[in-house]
Specification:
Layout (H helix, E strand, L loop, with lengths): L4 E6 L2 H11 L3 E9 L5 E8 L6 E6 L3 H6 L10 E4 L3 H10 L3 E2 L4 E3 L2 E7 L5 E6 L4
Parallel strand pairs: 1-4, 5-9
Antiparallel strand pairs: 2-3, 3-4, 6-8, 7-8, 8-9
Length: 132
């Protein structure tokens, strides 16, 4: 058993794909036509970190309730945790790509951490190993 996918509500597919693939370095695993439960066209879009089993379904908001949830999937709490081996390199790359970090990196018992916000307002932890 493993966790396969988590839904991330976004306002539009293509900018979301660009952020995940071009900025975060995820892979576009699937992008195929699909239909809503009531038959309207949509896309089935899945992105994953390289070599990861768990990924995101990028779901375009459908209706006012989902639009209201964009950027607030966890009510302002850090929603997603991206663990990397080379914290300094990834932090520098993301900063250079325009990712906004809320504060300077800091060390916690569980690793080096810096909180950033995705284009929709969801907070993320960038996590790396604790420096020696």
């Amino acid at each position: 058993m493993h966790l396969d996918l988590v839904t991330l509500i976004v306002d539009d597919y293509d900018p979301a794909i660009a952020f995940f693939t071009e900025v975060l370095g995820f892979e576009l695993a699937e992008d195929v036509p699909s239909r809503t439960n009531d038959g309207r066209p949509k896309r089935w879009v899945v992105v994953r970190p390289p070599a990861a089993r768990t990924g995101f379904v990028l779901a375009r908001a459908d209706g006012p309730r989902q639009v209201a949830a964009i950027g607030a999937q966890a009510a302002g709490r850090v929603t997603f945790f991206l663990r990397v081996d080379d914290f300094a390199a990834v932090h520098a790359r993301l900063s250079g790509a325009g990712v906004v970090f809320r504060a300077e990196p800091r060390d916690e018992a569980y690793g080096r951490i810096a909180v950033f916000t995705d284009p929709w307002g969801n907070p993320w932890d960038l996590l790396g190993p604790t420096p020696p």
